[in-house]
Amino acid sequence: MAQMGDDPAAVRRAVSGGLRVATEEPAGAAEVRDLPEDRTQAILEATKQVGTLLKQRGHRFALAGSVAAYAHGAGTNLQHDADFCVRAEDAEAVTETLREGGLEVRRPPEDWLLKTECFAQSVDLIFRLAHRPVTAELLDRAVEIPVESVRMPVLSATDLLVSKVSAFSEHYCDFGAVLPFARALREKIDWAEVRSECGEEPMPAAFLFLLERLNVIEP
Predict the structure, then answer these.
(1) Contacts 24+ apart (CB under 8 A), 184-189
(2) Average pLDDT of the residues in 66-79
(3) CA atoms 134, 160, 139, 115: torsion sign
(4) What SS3 class is residue 186?
(5) Are residues 81 and 135 located together in one domain of the fold?
(6) Nearest 5°: CA angle at 197, between 143 and 144?
(7) Which of 155, 176, 195 is the last residue of a domain?
(8) Same domain, 146 and 170
(9) What is the pLDDT, as a whole number, of residue 28?
(10) Average of per-residue pLDDT values in the chain
(11) Scanning 1, 20, 49, 205, which has the fewest C-beta atoms within 10 Å of its C-beta?
């Protein structure tokens, strides 16, 4: 997670660098604008920039993670990176598009994602969610909704929750981080599908039981 986002000056320095802001106009026609000092807004600006670059070139993708939850209406404060789901077979084409847009793309030791930075905010391009590959079917289920002023594909609320709950294990089991999302979007989530996808695993089953006891979902 990039710590530079906590420094407003770092955000402004990033904007004044070599990044070409994506617009519907020809490349180079738009001027880079100053970003607000709030980190949530900087993350949203980075999300819109990357999403617009991918849309302009016709790449298949879907917004994931905490920014996707925000777009669905869960949460108002963003502190972490922006996550985009892309298929592994599209990685090279996506990388080329982002580099042409002025972003440096790097491959970390993990083989399931690429990383870049936009407006001093970390952006991950993910090929696998909770050990499952990003597929055309997953992207087909994405819904196009606004992320502030930019419409883009966002993981469905059901797939987003499945990705979060399926990640629970004996080594990572932060129910408190996922509970507000489940509560806020319970009307959008297909709970039968969630149970079918991950309800047999011990930690996801425990989380679903907690939701039952809290009267978030029916037993």
Answers:
(1) 184/72, 184/73, 184/74, 184/75, 185/69, 185/72, 185/73, 185/74, 185/157, 185/161, 186/216, 186/217, 188/72, 188/156, 188/157, 188/158, 189/157, 189/158, 189/161
(2) 87
(3) negative
(4) coil
(5) yes
(6) 5
(7) 155
(8) no
(9) 37
(10) 86
(11) 1
Q: Do 100 and 197 lie in a common domain?
A: no
Number of Cβ within 10 Å of residue 58's Cβ equals 8
Q: The whole model's pTM is what? A: 0.81
Q: Are residues 56 and 130 in the same domain?
A: yes
Mean pLDDT for 43-63 is 97
Q: What is the secondary structure of 84-137 as a DSSP string?
A: EE--GGGHHHHHHHHHHTT--EE--SSTTEEEEEETTEEEEEESEETTEE--HH
In a shared domain, residues 78 and 43: yes
How many angstroms separate the Cα of 214 from the Cα of each of 29, 181, 208, 211?
53, 14, 10, 5
| Backbone phi, psi, residue 31, to 5° | -100, 140
Token reading at 89 = 């077979």
Q: Does 180 reside within a domain?
A: yes
The model's pLDDT over 149-174, given as tens digits with 9 standing for 90+, comes to 999 999 999 999 999 999 998 888 99
Question: Are 151 and 74 within one domain?
Answer: yes
In this structure, is residue 133 part of a structural domain? yes
What is the reported pLDDT for 79?
75
Residue 203 falls within a domain, yes or no? yes
8 A C-beta contact, residue 132 and residue 59: no
* Least confident window among 1-15, 70-84, 125-139, 195-209: 1-15
Examine residue 111 and state whether it is found in any structural domain, yes or no: yes
Whether residue 126 is found in the same domain as residue 164? no
